[in-house]
Specification:
single chain, alpha/beta, Rossmann fold, 6-stranded mixed sheet, 29% helix, 27% strand
Length: 473
């Protein structure tokens, strides 16, 4: 991987890519994604990972906002983006994976044409505090924010996990997560490479395939989102698989339902290890590898990470009381790309304000109770309501809408839209779904759409989303 990355690093360098340039990658889970990402780490250019299911409208925003110099994608996407190239003056090349190496049309280059370059012996040019990756993270108002994580952010966090989770070169990781996300790319893959693990890569998660691979390849580590554990528990006769090689099952990216935690231990005889992280910080807390793994808790602060629970007056709350989680450490983002005001709002001195609400018990274990920003996490993927509401607002017959997350056994939370038609007009759930299907990635689309006469508000006009959750749960 490192040698193939060096070839691509040399090719990009010869095409004018420099330290700090943004390289956007929108590929399915494949080795080429990893080669380009590692090439960026070598060159000091910045990886901008993008979900393969993003629509053309979403692709346009992320390429424009990041001012990407190179966009790496599939032939299907490359065929669609011709129309938006005039809107992207910073974009110099589109590298297409999976086409003939003879492709050279305008800004289009074939991936195969790049891998003939002989790499030079030039080493790393990036410094510890240089940005390594920009992860676009969901907020609740306005547009998506690009969290800038430095080489130091990534490495210190991975070293903390190495100690906390007992990683070693003897481990074998079964990797079923997407790699455009911090969970799959940084926590899982970077963590495995750092430890020298063997990695079994699967293009996507399948419950039976997962247990088959664990038995066949004697895997020792598995990282997943709660939805995946829910599906493992649904397969027929799961005990027919020998899982004795496994030492660590971690769960993250969304809250782990207590029923799944209990049922997994009952069925498989293993206790899931829940942890807490976010795009802006990597991992913050984890239940211990050796020690009590408390149901409903995301554990204790990782080595090098400090947390506080803060009230509205920005003073620490008493133990057991709910406050906003603030985080400090070398794992914390340097800020949001091209958003200095949002960066200032997110910090109080060295402390990063997560927007998550929680409390600590007498032993220091953290329990999350909600998100002050109404963020929805569905199947481990972040969805912010405003983006979905903005799409629904483009429908002429819609007066207003409110998008909420409702607890769901399979997805953790499902996206639900409550839509109010304009007076004298009508709109159907099917019409709303059609517009969302055209303009939003599949995981952002509402899984349920309700037509209502009105949306509840408080005395100052703010939508009461907590009341909506009770009405439609």
């Amino acid at each position: 991987m490192w040698e193939r990355a060096a070839i691509l690093r040399q090719a990009m360098q010869e095409s004018g890519v420099k330290l700090g340039d943004r390289i956007a990658i929108q590929l399915p889970k494949c080795m080429e994604f990893l080669y380009f990402h590692l090439a960026n780490l070598q060159l000091g250019s910045i990886t901008v990972p993008m979900n393969p299911t993003y629509t053309l409208e979403e692709i346009t925003y992320f390429l424009s906002d990041s001012e990407a110099k190179i966009f790496i994608t599939t032939s299907d996407n490359a065929a669609k983006i011709d129309a938006i190239l005039p809107m992207l003056p910073h974009l110099q090349h589109v590298i297409v994976v999976g086409v003939s190496e003879n492709l050279h049309q305008g800004k289009m280059l074939a991936y195969d044409s790049l891998i003939k370059t002989n790499p030079s012996t030039q080493g790393l040019t990036a410094r510890p505090k240089d940005t390594a990756i920009i992860l676009y993270t969901s907020g609740t108002t306005g547009r998506s924010k690009g969290a800038m994580l430095s080489h130091e952010n990534l490495l210190t966090n991975i070293e903390s996990l190495h100690v906390a989770w007992g990683h070693s070169e003897k481990d074998i990781l079964l990797h079923v997560l997407p790699i455009f996300h911090i969970h799959g790319l940084i926590v899982a893959l970077h963590g495995a490479v750092h430890a020298g693990m063997k990695v079994i890569m699967r293009r996507q998660f399948d419950p039976v395939d997962t247990l088959t691979c664990i038995e066949k390849d004697h895997c020792t580590v598995f990282m997943a989102v709660p939805t995946m554990y829910y599906r493992l528990l649904k397969i027929e006769n799961p005990l027919r698989f020998n899982l004795d090689s496994m030492r660590l099952w971690t769960s993250g990216s969304a809250p782990l339902p207590a029923a799944v935690f209990d049922r997994f231990r009952q069925v498989f005889g293993h206790t899931l290890l829940e942890r807490y992280g976010m795009s802006e910080t990597g991992m913050n807390t984890s239940n211990p590898l050796n020690g009590p793994r408390k149901r409903g808790s995301v554990g204790l602060p990782l080595p090098g990470v400090s947390i506080r629970l803060v009230g509205p007056d920005e003073n620490d709350v008493n133990p057991g009381d709910v406050g906003e989680v603030w985080v400090r450490g070398k794992n914390v983002t340097q800020g949001y790309w091209n958003m200095p005001e949002k960066t200032r709002e997110a910090f109080s001195g060295e402390w990063f304000k997560t927007g998550d609400l929680g409390y600590q018990d007498e032993e220091g274990y953290l329990y999350l109770v909600g998100r002050g920003k109404d963020l929805i996490i569905s199947g481990g993927m972040n969805v912010y309501p405003t983006e979905v509401e903005d799409v629904i607002a483009t429908i002429e017959a819609v007066e207003e809408s409110a998008v909420i997350g409702i607890p769901d056994d399979e997805w953790g939370e499902k996206v639900v839209a409550v839509v109010v038609p304009r007076p004298g007009q009508s709109v159907t759930p099917e019409e709303v779904d059609l517009v969302c299907r055209e303009r939003l990635a599949n995981y952002k689309r509402p899984k349920a759409i309700y037509i209502a006469d009105k949306i509840p508000r408080n005395t100052v006009g703010k939508i009461l989303k907590s009341q909506l959750r009770e009405m439609y749960n």
